[in-house]
Amino acid sequence: MFRLVSLVVVCLAAAVAAASPHGWERQEAAGEPRADQCTGFDNSLRFDCYPEDDASEDKCKNRGCCWRPPDTSLDRVALNIPYCFYPQNYGGYKFLNISDSAFGKTAYLQRGTKSYIPNDINIIRIDAKFETQNRLHIYDPSNERWIPPLPEMPQVDTKASDPSYDFVLEESKIGFKVLRKDDSEVLFNTQDIGGLIYADQFIQMSTLLPTNYIYGLGEHRTTFPLSTKWQRFTTWNRDIAPSEYTNLYGTHPFYLAMETSGKSHGVLMFNSNAMDVLLQPTPALTYRTVGGIIDLYFFFGPTPADVVKQYTDLIGRPFLPPYWGLGFHLCRYGYKTLTETKAAMTRTQQAGIPLDTMWNDLDYMKDQNDFTYDTSNFAGLPDFVDQLHQNGMHYIPLIDPGISASEASGTYPPYDRGVELGVFVKDSAGKPFLGKVWNPQSTAFPDFTNPKALDYWKEMLTTMYKLFKFDGAWIDMNEPANFLDGSTTGCDKNTLNSPPYTPAVAGGALISRTLCMDAQQYMGKHYNVHNMYGFTETIVTTTVLAEIRQKRPFVISRSTFIGHGRYSGHWSGDISSSWSDMGWTISELLSMSIYGVSLMGADICGFNGGSTANLCQRWMELGAFYPFSRNHNTKDVNAQDPASFGTEVAESSRKALETRYTLLPYLYTLLWRAHAEGTTVQTYAIDTAFLWGSGLFIVPVLTEGTTDVTVYLPKAHWYNFYNGALLSTGGANTTLSAPLDTIPLLVRGGNILPMQTPSTTTTASRKNKFGLMVASDESGSASGSLYWDDGDSLGTYEQRICNLITFELQSSQLTGTPTHIGYTGESMVLGNITVLGVSSASSVTVNGASTSFTFDSSNKVSTLHITMLLTCVNSSMLTPPQENNGKRGETVIQKTDFESIERHHSQASLALKCTSF
């Protein structure tokens, strides 16, 4: 459960009383700028002084800014080169004092002339906390304003002894610089730019950037490397079908930058209010937000992986999902009956396609009401769920946050109990705020920031769990979505519902298809809490599920916020069944990975519109490698479960998913590393392909009618996953064959991938033998690891009820080292090893004894296959390593001295009986 911290929410009554209807009339004329202040500007150095749509020369100069239409054609997508821009030496704040402190530096600034925004904050305090060697925190603690209550954010009051950065303040210049100490690279520079505004409902700050290679600033549909050609990214969580240049379901104002030196850094603007972030080709960035404070965290890498680790160290590491959650999931909005649900499952299973979890959209509910099920159309649902469990499968229902307020009193406990406990969001009159979602009349919204919401949500989910034993929760519509603009009676006219500045949100207003901004939540006005609504629901739902089931919770949420990955996974919402939408899912996957959301996927074959067989075939091949793999579509279109398209699509899907299930030990190990260390699961700078970790490159076909695909491969040995052939040594574009039934998969040399013989469920697969794919690099070396636990219990890693085995190939010797053995619940039998890139093989020994093998050296394939290596009977088989006798062409497969296992574990010797590594 998140910790409720004591906060003082910004008091806006004075702003409401003092502001004009629009709030933009200039407070005090600063005078038209001199001509020489407006000349000599490159277009890329113009910082917008009039972000509204009605700019004119008179209005611009009334703000003391320069007016000059650009004399060049525009190369842009979403924005324009500003006509109205800040002049040189634009007035604003000046330093009153700069001093050192126990945690870093402190400075005070005072505003000279008033800005054109109502209710300037005249005194700003800047604290720069040198929190760790690679994390700098800059914020304003002096004003009692809204700060997002993110769980367990660290509080550091003593500066790091040897920070890798410098923070520079100069009394003669307004703003600050952040530099990397070892090379003096300026990473963030707000000095001498102009346009700093700090007002009650508007904060603006611009900075020069050292690079055009920027990633993040989500959630948006955009290329993975962001364009800096006059782009605007708006964060305001919204129920909307994904499209370009609009705000979507999540708020992640974090970016990762790749510097020209090859080093990387990251910056988080820790703010939950509606925000525009603008990029321009200077390169430069501008933040505009309608509340909160300036609150910046810097992460200094120096590698991209380091940046993500440092970021998730602050906001929380990604959660470790249950193993069954990594299987294939099947759902649609439009299984009108349980019979239809079963039919889709049955034809999938009959086609031999692996399947772990069945889902139902709101079709299963009675009258579309949460915590019920339709005992007519879904009669037998409890028995169906029980049967799934007996077959090693699982079941997940949809749970929306909106609670019907239209039922007769005493007939619908979810509403009656919510009113009784006072847990619903309240309107400006203090009554339950009523909007409209699925119910034809009215809907109330639980306030998940209210401490009582935990008990309320647990009571509701427990009641449903007694009806049928669901295994996870799919929480949708939690931006929160509303079919109205505000309440059933509209919204009051004030500067919360109509602020002085409105970011470029879909619908043109903050209240568009959501709650009124003056709706009251326990932690404050919805104006401040809106972007955190789904996040707080996620925390409560995850907490409650763990308590009810006493197993690892599995939650997938549409709405997300900073730190979301610590509690839940995410899917990319209501995408369309189109080739372009399929392609966009890769950049979304990569972006979410740097935000610390590891369990990520998209509706395979698309949600809106009907998929074609060819599209679904290729999408099933791609979706088999989303970390969260679910086929889902809307009602009133053709079915798109893979078997519904016939034999060809079904067979391609079976092949791709069997490969996924083969590689699940590798994926699970990657997810564990993300949970334990903060590493990313998906990586790559190209957004038409992506990596699982460093070892497996997934190259999907994204265009119709194509049977090959070209991709750039970095310098490395790249092997064909399917036959072991060395395809390329990298450093160039490479064309890969991609028959209709195959997604190209490449293994990078230097990696060892743990695998397992697949079955049609993860429950069955976990009983099978393990395997290793060993891909040697140019020096003949490789390394990897396997993390293993029971896949479903709480706290297995934290309580060390797990196994961790590392593998290393050096000088023709493959060694497995159990660095921790704490899980003894299953036999772990190594059944086969495949070594790629072997020059020759005349003999293979295991612990000094010869074993059978095959060696394929045909057609650029140099692959050693070793099968049925060991069946571990007792610990006497676990012998110390054998020395390589140095004979040319001999490969020694050996185990380490298992005495290296941690001695404090009393059952180590027993665990070894079950371990063949």
Automatic annotation (TrEMBL):
Coiled-coil stretches: none
Entries under SMART domains matching the protein: PD (SM00018)
Alphabetic keyword roster: Disulfide bond, Glycosidase, Hydrolase, Membrane, Signal
Signal peptide: 1-18
InterPro entries recorded: Gal_mutarotase_sf_dom, GH, Glyco_hydro_31_C, Glyco_hydro_31_CS, Glyco_hydro_31_N_dom, Glyco_hydro_31_TIM, Glyco_hydro_b, P_trefoil_CS
Name of a matching Pfam family: Glyco_hydro_31_2nd
Keyword Hydrolase carried by entry: yes
Localisation: Endomembrane system
Domain P-type: 36-88
Top-level taxon of the source organism: Eukaryota
Entry's family note: Belongs to the glycosyl hydrolase 31 family.
Listed name of the protein: P-type domain-containing protein
Organism encoding this protein: Dryococelus australis
